[in-house]
Amino acid sequence: MARETLGTALKRAREGHGLSLRDVERRTQIKSGHLSQIETGVISKPDMAILFDLAVLYELDFAHLLRLAGLASAGGSTDRARQRTTVAVRALEGLSPREHAEAMAYIAEIRGRRDRG
């Protein structure tokens, strides 16, 4: 069996949800031509924020999509750091004040473990 690629995983998920490329464009504001290039592998490492939006829409594991795109490593350039920040901010959108507080407390806990560790 062929190894799963980011493009094949995204196309399978899109089709599984009964969505056309234009449907996805309307829901995410990601141009259908760009989506097509990701699905066909022309673009193999799309922006993390795009992957996050698609993971939410298609109900996929974001970390798995990052691995398929080769973007899962913790290190990287300042551009990658900026992309991770953008994704984090998007993940907080739409949370209730209580959920937002819980997310921030969790982040503080992780930082505390890192600082102690």
Task: Explain the overall architecture.
The protein is mostly helical and 117 residues long. The protein has 2 domains: 1-72, Orthogonal Bundle (434 Repressor (Amino-terminal Domain)), CATH 1.10.260.40; 74-117. It has 7 helices and no strands. The radius of gyration is 16 Å and the shape is globular. 15% of the residues are buried.
Q: What sequence of helices (H) and strands (E) makes up the elements?
A: HHHHHHH
Which parts are unreliable, with pLDDT below 50 for 5 consecutive residues or more?
none
The general outline is: globular
- Say what the CATH topology of the largest domain is: 434 Repressor (Amino-terminal Domain)
CATH superfamily of the largest domain: lambda repressor-like DNA-binding domains
What is the name of the CATH architecture of the largest domain? Orthogonal Bundle
Question: What fraction, in percent, of the residue positions are helical?
Answer: 55-70%
Q: How many separate helices?
A: 7
State the domain count: 2
Average pLDDT rating: 89
Task: Report Rg.
Answer: 16 Å
Sheet with the most strands, sense and barrel status: none
Number of strands: 0
Broad CATH class of the largest domain? Mainly Alpha
Q: Specify the structural class.
A: mainly alpha
Distance between the termini: 42 Å
Portion in strands: under 5%
